Amino acid sequence: MCGIIAAASNRNVGKLLVQGLHKMEYRGYDSAGIALHQLDKIAHLRTLGKVKLLEDKMIQEKPKSKLGIAHTRWATHGEPSEENAHPHKSNERVYIVHNGIIENYLELKDYLKKEGYSFTSQTDSELIAHLLDFYLNKDKTMIDSMYMTLDKLEGAYAIAAIDKEDNKNIVVARNKSPLLIGLGTDEFLAASDPLAISQLTNEFIFLEDGDVAQISADDYVIFDESKNPVDREITKIDISNQATSKGDYKHFMEKEIYEQPQAILNTIDGRVGGDDVLDNIFGLGSSELFEKVKRVQIVACGTSLHAGRVAANWFSAISELPTQIDYASEYRYRNPHVDENSLLVTISQSGETADTLAALRYAKEKEYISTLTICNVPTSSLARESDYSIFTNAGPEIGVASTKAFTTQLAALMLLALSLAKSRDKNPKLRTRVVTAMRSLSDTVQETLKLRDVILEIAPEIASKDNALFLGRGIFYPIAKEGALKLKEISYIHAEAYPAGELKHGPLALIDEDMPVIALAPESEIAEKLVSNLEEVKARGGTLYVFSDPSISMDLKAGRLINMPKCDFLLTPIIYTIPLQILSYEVALLRGTDIDQPRNLAKSVTVE
Ligand code: AGP
Fold first, then answer.
1. Which of 202, 277, 432, 468 could staple 418 via S-S, CB 3.0–4.6 A?
2. Is residue 346 in contact with ligand 1, taking CB distance under 6 Å?
3. Does the beta carbon of 350 sit less than 6 angstroms from any atom of ligand 1?
4. CATH class held by domain 3-236
């Protein structure tokens, strides 16, 4: 993961580099650092911990510079420490920041040691600085040295490098890790994410794999992998300040939970008509393509995978299509058999998740009829490399725990289920029913948010425990899994999810007064069976917190029955997600954890 940023300007860049790092802390936040060119020397500051600590150091030392690079880290090779923080340097001359993983780092380290270089960190990144220095000492330019260095590297990287002997230029390179150039006023910038420099420009160039570029305050030049100068398209993106600040909320997660009614409207807007989904909303020719689809293969990670698990049920019920679903990190390693006319669907908030991207690239070599992505970031690698796409339009999601990204992914996946069904001429009445329900979905989510008061009452009971079980059946099992993921991710309470009918096959042994059980009990054809499963928990002294349809009655000895707002059954997974998000948030708040940046995690997982 990690976030990198670079700036060449006619003004001081220290502050804007640190501001950029703050905006990329979602990519990692275990240490941070900066290297600033000061003509006769390079100021090199690194701190263990969040960007704020680097900022404090900058305030104390006030280094001035018009050219610099900076980094916020999520440790892969080597523990979080000041020595392992970027920028790394070689011979007080070359300074680099790197995002990605160098797979052949041991071999290259050995080679460089034999050439007389010594290493001060445990990272795979430091060797990049040494390789650049090695070639610069052979009278090569920085651009030539970068190409010669890249020739030796295996793996994924976005790199920015500066040379003490050159106070004008920064050289950057990209392969399988995101990197873009920002076209500012009297300055050029580079960063892992447009968000990092969105206050400085709305014009970006997304570099391609193999590209090397040089930026200065007045100009930029890009070369492709064969070292030919290339023109890359300039993309305009406006990211408002409001979208990237917390406003009156305590945490981004809280803000993002409350943004869901609007975010869902944005996902659906312009994509459904009076009584059906509109044609070609996944791209020109998508409706025609969908006529031929016979099977769907979903790959995703984490929360996005849970959205896929819900959608697999919808593809079956609405589109009458069989669906296979895999963890993106596992998919390539099971030698998947691809049936004729199978559609590959990836789901990702960031569109940069390395496992999902690698799965897409692998699938493109297979016999899929096409590839399609559900993504929140239109400029992401996944969006650019997929044949078809739909954007969830949720706005930037900053909290590490995914909330609005998930519910909007579900809305977009429902659009996909409807589109596949429409092209395949399946279930027209059902489609009209669902489209009608989708139009009031945002209002129902708004109503569901009012459950916060009830949740505030039960949160202390969960916060005082070390474990929790989540139960759901059928289409609600993935929602139970999402609830458990949310709780463990931000409150560090161990939580697991089961289809309620599985309890008696083992997990029931865990039930006692210290095991809160959170159950999802909507009105459904298996509601009675679910209630029986919950009775089994009750009989063993378990405390139940049941989110249920008002028609379900249960006499709970301990715990709570919480009535949920009514909604079309096929859309209820979206509604039942909301109280679980609020519950995790309130529990984490009580436990005093770092909600937006939980320990050991990062928002965008760009390493496999
Ligand atoms: C969930 O709260 C996590 N942030 C995580 O599971 C996330 O969904 C996963 O890493 C996939 O990310 P993506 O959607 O950006 O691909």
1. 277
2. no
3. yes
4. alpha beta
